[in-house]
What does this fold into?
Amino acid sequence: MEWTYRHFKTRLLDNDICIVGFDYQGKSVNVLTSEALEEIKAIVYGVTADERVKGMVLVSLKDSFIAGADINEIYEMTDIDGCKKLVTETHTVFGEIESSKKPWVVAIDGLCLGGGLELALACHWRVATDNGVFGFPEVKLGIIPGFGGTQRLPRLISLPDALDLITSGRNVYAYPALKRGIIDDVVTNQRGERTIDTVDREAFVVVAIERALALRSQKGLKRNPRTPLLQKILGWPGVRDLITFKKARSMVTARVKNHYPAPLKALDAVQAGLRMSVQRACLEAEMPYLLELVVSRLSKDLIEVFLSTQKTKNQNLGPSFFDPAKHTIGVLGAGLMGSQIAGEISDKGFGVHLKDLEPKFLCDGMNRIIRMKKEDVAKRIINKPECEHRMLRIHPSLSWDDFKSTPFVIEAIKEVLSWKQKALEEFEEAAPTDAIFATNTSSFMISEVAEKARHKERCVGMHFFNPVRKMQLVEIVRSDSTSAQALAHAYELGSIMGKVPLVVRDGPGFLVNRILSRYLVEAVLLVAEGVSIADVDKAAENFGMAIDSGRSMGPLALIDYIGVETAVHVLSSLKKLGDRIVVHPLIGGMIPQGKRPLTFWKQGKENDEVRKLLKEQYAGPQRSVSTETLIKRLVLPMRDEALRCLEEGIVTEPWQVDLAMLYGAGFPAFRGGLLKEMAREGVDHTRADLESLAADHGDRFQPCDSFKEAENVLSAYKM
Ligand code: NAD
It folds into this structure.
């Protein structure tokens, strides 16, 4: 027996176990399209009817198991009836797998997300490699798991764990997944040639076959009882409604407020479904919520964010260059940013030369990296030997001699222009003649850093955001002199690091800091005019700023977070843009000579010293400002600056601005995007508001000329 389909291949082994290999044609990862689901259905009915088949092992013939349902299909779904048909049929097929007398074992390597995890949960046993990654990212797309995930997971693992995974969209790695009971075995695997004829030789598939045979035998297999007693109690019928769901609901509400309905609907689906059989719950408790959400505008917006993220990540700027086996990357400066960047690069398998001026700075930097890696070990993302390997790949260095064969150097030294220029000069002496110099400067233009260089074409910007691991954006900055090769290599390294590498043109503040500065400046002016620090931050939080990071944050708390000195540097560098960014002398006062800079917040309370200081220094009138005006003053200048950036070609597409502000500045995804929201509200509306703010507060609000063309520029946005 060998059934062959477009995306699946099958092979019956001598022991009567049928290997079902998934290899989606035309895509680099397996996804559950309606076409793939049709094929799964045919296979399920085929193997069930075939008496020779005693059990099945489902495995991917690609690197990863299944990345989820096909996002493009979900995006296109506007017809509830069509969606209902697909989901109902999928429930029937998954139900057939679950109730099959023949064991279905799934062997998982790499990603097992969304619909892929739901398929795995319908199987009888789950074996994974230690590369396995599991999760339900659906809520991030404004929907809920819709192929039974909200029903099967809470029946398999403890209720609090299941609710956490379903409502957060977080991924878990293999060992934590094993501990929670999502999977049953973890196997260290050496990836071999993976075809339908060879995959059964890989260790994890060998184990999966053994498990299928054991499940087939009279003895069967027993799952380890893993759930601690307290967790079990929290799933008991009387307790769960009173305590577990209540707590989950209040945690979700605190995190997403009323901006994202999906996590709360997922909770409703789980709670209602637990009173029914799985099959009924899938159809009656889960599906109605899914159908409601899948056609919503919010879901379409969030999917657009996902798709533009993919577009940004998958550009082809040139042939691939980096090879961890061959290349060592240089990082200059072992401070806050350099150490994080070095740690992230070593995680990707590269050797790193980390250079600083003194042993003490190197020690501090290495200790910072060790602390981060230890956190990964504690979270069981990596094990101790892997942690040691990653650390051993980082070579602390005080000498340029180590950079003789380093093809790519990231500069993250102190924000002093002459120091950066000197470092570039030394790099040109020491590194190979074709090596690239990527500066992480946040306040100088790339052309300024490269001003004295002999080979300006080798200098490019790689502007990371702090904290490097959490912040997905990296601006890849090209000056007029940057070569295509330097740009392509910087882009590729950003991509390898798992970032969203957005190419932007050189200019003061690049893209994100330039737009964000308008918001920060206005926030400081509001305090100077007598508005309380709490009122400013609260209004911005309620607007949604930084909500997607899991920690809402207003502009003044953000200045505290990035450090007032850094903020002053960045704002000062924007002076050349004109008088609309005028605040730096005001915040400058927050850095007293020889003392630590002041912060807006002190031990969770407003810092009155700062309020007084700003008030004293401010020459303008004191005012009381309504929340509506306050938000307009914070947000509308960002829209204005974004249009100016488009006009100047810092980026070329409005969606690039929106993506950058989402990942780099915490603009909330539920609003669709900084410019998309303006397009929806009507460009003229924003322009009129800015004009009226200009009349009341001065020329800094005067809308730019680009507003005249904005309706056209933004017309590509679907309304
Ligand atoms: P930092 O002060 O923490 O670290 C700078 C390090 O550079 C220090 O350890 C210093 O000893 C070292 N250094 C100075 N001159 C050197 C040289 N010639 N060779 C090697 N090492 C040298 O600074 P940071 O916050 O890590 O910032 C580094 C760069 O990253 C700056 O350009 C900054 O603008 C940029 N940046 C910072 C942030 C942030 O939030 N801190 C965010 C984005 C970009």
Remarks:
- The domain at 8-295 is CATH 3.90.226.10 (2-enoyl-CoA Hydratase; Chain A, domain 1).
- The CA atoms of residues 72 and 442 lie 36 Å apart.
